[in-house]
């Protein structure tokens, strides 16, 4: 099955985000996480082996508004992405946009079902004006739905992963 150029780009972004997350997770935890591969649509986006056991990961990217996403990616977006971001365009405060965009991703992904024993959600912050410190400052306002299919939920703090990863669920006591 031949993928369209936008599907290939989406897959490349997911692969890149997963590799960044895996390197940070292995560094922070000391646990070996290896061998990345992509899945078909009924499964989470990518899979790997954590300590030799299969782990599936659903990958999402956090943008601010539709316009910001277009600027970050340097191109037009598909209609589904535009619908998710369009309502954020009217919110003006950066922290409020970050929180609304993140909570929207969490709400949307919590509704999904996967044919998998073990799924983690990994959200990559794609917005250059936001970083790990801002995300952590909003931690108490982040709305992880009470029911979702994820064993763990993580964020990559910035596009390149330089600021590290943040565990959103289950939350450590702080």
Explain how this protein is built.
The protein has one domain (5-169). Strands 1-2-3-4-5-6 form a 6-stranded mixed beta sheet. It is 37% helix and 22% strand. With 174 residues, the chain is an alpha/beta fold. A hairpin with a 7-residue loop joins strand 1 and strand 2 (46-50).
Concise overview:
The chain is of the alpha/beta class. Helices cover 37% and strands 22% of the residues.
Mean pLDDT: 85
Quote the distance from N terminus to C terminus.
47 Å
Individual helix count? 5
Order the strands across the largest sheet as they lie in space.
1-2-3-4-5-6
Shape assignment: globular
H and E string: HEEEHHHEHEE
Query: How many distinct beta strands?
Result: 6
**SS-derived structural category:** alpha/beta
The biggest beta sheet, please?
6 strands, mixed
Low-confidence stretches: 80-86
* Total domain units: 1
Strand content: 15-25%
Approximately how much helix is present in the residues? 25-40%
- Whole-angstrom Rg: 15 Å
How is this fold's topology laid out?
Blueprint: H1 5-29, E1 33-38, E2 46-50, E3 53-62, H2 66-73, H3 79-86, H4 94-110, E4 119-125, H5 132-137, E5 152-156, E6 165-169
Parallel strand pairs: 3-4, 4-5
Antiparallel strand pairs: 1-2, 2-3, 5-6
